[in-house]
Recover the amino acids of this structure.
């Protein structure tokens, strides 16, 4: 199975990561099949590492730690059981999903360090738009402190999630990856407790008042990826 509606921006060369963008909405099950096949080929030494950028139709995914009670509206959108780490997430139009298929045999077999690299990639990407993304102990993903909202009952600044991270490794090759909210329908998140966290909200680049397009984000993602993970293949 090939990459649905893909624009392959580059041709593989040694020690470079193939950068792939799919137009339109990509079926989730098809995406998983493509990722698993590519990860297996990377592990076998027959394919290059890759980053694949997609959008999905509205759906929920349940990671390996998902709790049934956190699916509050099970009939709203299709629910896909996922083998990635984490709990429930939402994917849909206006959200950029970056599937990251990298060989940790070559990059160091350190899962914690790899997740921290992914977090740093997201934070650097947000910084391209003068946003300060932050990570929090005990909370997966990247968060934005909301100076424009009233303080919480505890006197703290409210924080909204702008990016999720969930990966899986097979033979030390990663798949699944990250998602960043550009302009999704934020009300769609109300059918789940995102990542099991009830006391914080969800935001997006456009919700924060930034007129960022998906293409704008893709340019920033590629630039900041190369500074942390190494070069992608030139177009």
């Amino acid at each position: 199975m090939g990459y649905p509606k893909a624009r392959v921006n580059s041709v593989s060369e040694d020690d470079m990561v193939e950068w792939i963008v799919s137009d339109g909405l990509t079926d989730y099950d098809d995406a998983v099949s493509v990722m698993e096949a590519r990860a297996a080929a990377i592990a076998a030494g027959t394919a290059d590492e890759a980053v694949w950028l997609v959008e999905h139709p509205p759906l929920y995914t349940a990671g390996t730690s998902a709790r049934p009670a956190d699916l509050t509206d099970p009939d709203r959108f299709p629910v896909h059981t996922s083998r990635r780490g984490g709990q429930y997430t939402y994917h849909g139009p206006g959200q950029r999903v970056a599937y990251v298929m990298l060989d940790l045999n070559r990059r160091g077999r350190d899962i914690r360090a790899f997740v921290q690299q992914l977090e740093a990639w997201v934070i650097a990407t947000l910084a391209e738009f003068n946003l300060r993304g932050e990570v929090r102990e005990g909370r997966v993903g990247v968060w934005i402190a909301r100076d424009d909202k009233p303080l919480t009952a505890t006197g703290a600044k409210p924080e909204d999630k702008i990016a999720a991270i969930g990966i899986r490794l097979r033979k030390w090759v990663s798949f699944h990856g990250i998602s960043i909210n550009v302009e999704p329908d934020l009300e769609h998140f109300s059918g789940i407790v995102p990542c099991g966290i009830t006391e914080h909200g969800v935001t997006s680049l456009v919700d924060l008042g930034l007129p960022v397009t998906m293409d704008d984000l893709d340019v920033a993602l590629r630039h900041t990826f190369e500074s942390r993970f190494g070069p992608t293949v030139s177009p």
Notes: The radius of gyration is 17 Å. The helical segments are 28-44, 104-107, 111-127, 214-229. Residues 37 and 90 are 24 Å apart (CA to CA). The chain has four helices and twelve strands.
